[in-house]
Design goal:
Blueprint: E1 4-9, E2 18-23, E3 35-40, E4 43-49, H1 64-73, E5 76-87, E6 97-99, E7 102-106, H2 131-144, E8 148-149, E9 153-157, H3 165-173, E10 178-180, H4 186-192, E11 196-205, H5 221-230, H6 232-245
Parallel strand pairs: 1-4, 1-5, 5-11, 6-8, 7-9, 9-10
Antiparallel strand pairs: 2-3, 3-4, 5-10, 6-11
Length: about 260
């Protein structure tokens, strides 16, 4: 069945695999959030609950390096990551799926690279999300009849607090479509390990509300959990179809992400 497909799930996504087995994976970067191995749609899969099995890790303290390192140690070459996101544009409505093609990092203080010594390595990040996986995901969303956007930039904030109105207006004015607290540095670290990475956002809210519509209130945690919970089966169906549709071998350029990235002494 080839190399494993990794799934990193956020809010509300804690039971996915068929007959999963919790395993203790030793990472060089601390303890991962938790790793379970199993099968899904006939493929070998590894699942990591991003915030821990009981959602006890806030966004800025998620062990991102340990999680990606652990994925590599169980032979993961592709990662499907789900995120609850807020919308910064009226056309990106609660209930929509977004297949990220770009991110903007607005976090600070996170350990966000594996390359901290020699050789000095600069990894290209122009296209951080795997184009092959995004095409497969778009096809699956169409087949399932899900409202989705094939493109979208996610701006990643530190959290755990939500944005002020001023911050949200600024991010929207920059042209970003969605906002989240956990896409960075996860996607960048996967790139540093030459993994394919698919980021799927599920829109749960309009961040600080919707301009001109006083009925749309600023985001609350209760709202995020309720909206995501109502659509959890859609999320699982989409992931299942993506896994079924992915070819056994990679034909994208992600596996070559480190080619020529290191500076020779």
């Amino acid at each position: 069945m080839g190399s494993r497909i990794g799934i990193i799930g956020g809010s509300g996504l804690y039971s996915l695999l068929e007959k999963d087995e919790k395993v203790d994976v030793k990472s060089d970067y601390g303890k991962p959030s938790g790793v379970a191995l199993g099968t899904m749609a006939g493929r070998n899969v590894a699942f990591i609950p991003r915030h821990g099995p009981r959602h006890t890790m806030p966004p800025h303290l998620v062990p991102y390096r340990a999680n990606i390192d652990a994925m590599g140690k169980v032979d993961v070459k592709r990662i499907i990551a789900t995120n609850a996101v807020g919308s910064l544009k009226e056309s990106y409505k609660p209930g929509d799926f977004v297949l990220f093609d770009q991110f903007f990092n607005a976090t600070s203080g996170r350990q966000d690279t594996f390359f901290e010594g020699s050789p000095v390595t600069h990894v290209g990040m122009a296209e951080p999300y795997c184009p092959e996986m995004r095409r497969v995901a778009a096809g699956a969303a169409k087949k399932l009849g899900l409202r989705h956007h094939e493109y979208g930039t996610v701006v990643v904030i530190n959290g755990p607090r939500y944005s002020t109105r001023a911050e949200s207006r600024f991010f929207g004015a920059m042209g970003f479509e969605t906002i989240n607290m956990t896409q960075y540095p996860e996607v960048a670290l996967a790139r540093e390990r030459a993994m394919c990475y698919l980021g799927i956002g599920f829109v749960t809210d309009y961040d600080v509300g919707l301009a001109g519509n006083p009925k749309v209130k600023p985001v609350s945690t209760d709202e995020v959990q309720r909206t995501f919970g109502r659509s959890i089966e859609k999320v699982k169906s989409l992931i299942t179809m993506i896994i079924e549709s992915l070819p056994e071998t990679r034909s994208c350029g992600c596996s070559h992400a480190l080619d020529g990235a290191a500076i020779s002494p």
